[in-house]
Amino acid sequence: MSVVGSRASGAPGTDGTRSDSGPSAPAWLGSTGHSTSGLGSSAPEARNAPDIEAAGIAAVVNGLALCAIHHLAFDRDLLGIDPAGMIHIAGRLLREIDGPMLRAGLQGFHGASISMPRRPGDRPDPARLEARFERFTRVAA
Q1: 87-128, pLDDT tens digit by residue?
Q2: Terminal CA-to-CA distance of the chain, rounded, Å?
Q3: Secondary structure element (H or E) that encloses residue 89, with its range
Q4: At 129, which helix (H) or strand (E)?
Q5: What is the β-pairing status of strands 87-89 and 79-81?
């Protein structure tokens, strides 16, 4: 499970755990039999949305599978996900002109939807997404 929020750096351990955030996505999912929502990342990390320190919980309904680049963008309010699962990229990032990595890696996701697990119980809680998306809309111009 990938949970989204503020994140300290820490490399995954050999046992599938991270020193800063608990189990990695593959280890946690393997132990629970759950799947998560996300952007189809090949190497998801574990993070909570909203920030676990700000009333988040470590549960599937509070998780998203995001790669390191998308986690960083989410944590810095450059990428937001609304309660319906639509991806929004901050205006300041959409206006940025750089190379193909920015276009394909972030800007190209604007307006797309995250993939949702088949089981409703494995999907992110829309109220939690709404709370986190409100923060994104306040700071992402």
Answers
A1: 999 999 999 999 999 999 999 999 999 998 888 888 888 998
A2: 29
A3: strand 87-89
A4: helix 126-139
A5: antiparallel
d(CA 137, CA 133): 6
Kind plus residue range of the DSSP H or E element containing 17: strand 17-18
pLDDT tens, 16-34?
A: 333 344 444 444 444 444 4
Neighbours of 92 (CB within 10 A): 11
DSSP state of 118: S
Q: What gap in Å lies between CA 32 and CA 59, rounded to an integer?
A: 10
- Do 46 and 2 meet the contact criterion of CB atoms below 8 Å apart? yes
Ranges of H-type helices in 82-125: 91-94, 100-105
CA distance 48 to 103: 26
Phi, psi dihedral angles at 48 (to 5 degrees): -110, 145
